[in-house]
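Reopening this one. Same input as before:
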Amino acid sequence: MKKYGFSIIGAVFAMASILLAWKEYPAIAATAGLLAWAFSMAGVKTGSTKWKSVQLFIVCGVFGYVLSPPGGMYLMVPALIFAAAVGSFRILVFEQLAYVRIKWIEPVFYLLAMSLYVSANLLDSTGWVGWAMPALTLFFTTFMILGIITERRDIAATAIDRYGVEIGRPAPGFSLPDEEGKNVSLDEFRNKRHVLLIFVRGDWCPTCHIMLRSYERNKERFAAKNIMLLAIGPDNVGVNKEMVDKLGLDYKLLSDDKMEAVRAYGMQKHSNHPMTKCADGIPLPASFLVDISGNILYTSNPQIAGEILNPETIIPIVEKLHAA
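Same output, byte for byte:
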């Protein structure tokens, strides 16, 4: 219930907004629609799944509907759906697009959302309600699109040399607590197992949830190749424990709250832009395969769509290693 609470509340407010619009209480219906958007967005942020993103699209469509005059052109419906797409479309197709492929999609969605919002109020007006009620949604979308553009630039700049490690060189060691508070050292797997390190950005990151679940789905394939999965994130042990339970992970999530491993692997992103300064220093999303002798065998590349999530790019490397 905990991980679906916000989404359930959002769905209730969406249904209430339709009922209030039908009873001809437009201002109250619009307020309920705004609350439906806010809670549905919170649901996506606290534990992203594809159905939560789909719900956000539906809720935004409902919000646009109750903001439109009866018999009008209902331009606010696609306006708010495109606004939702700025932050949620890539979540739905993350395995295909990752972070940096087809960069123009979000800006196009944003321009369509703003154009339709203005057109709806000029051609399909509901007065101050139509201008004011979607304002928070569109302000949030504006903040998001600027952050997306800046962050994408920072990721590309930081990862251009494949981070701070080299393939064939020894992997930097670390000893970090897992979600149960027990210390896990990279050296303990030397001469025993290969290790696949998965760097994530934290519990706040919806696409990181997708990454972690993707590796969970493929854990048996990795285990068959003697590969140990270890995820590393900047959250503390308590937050990691909640995330492991929430996402149903069956592998360890290590707490690197002092950013020691992040710095050792060159995974720290720095930004001087005011839109992303609040996220300065958080790790980049990436994966590293450390072979049984402790050397870097593979690094993911965020410039290639889906590589972080696709085990097909890792398994053949290990198969060749075993054959050799």
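So the earlier flakiness isn't reproducible anymore. For the record, Confidence is low (pLDDT under 50) at residues 272-279.
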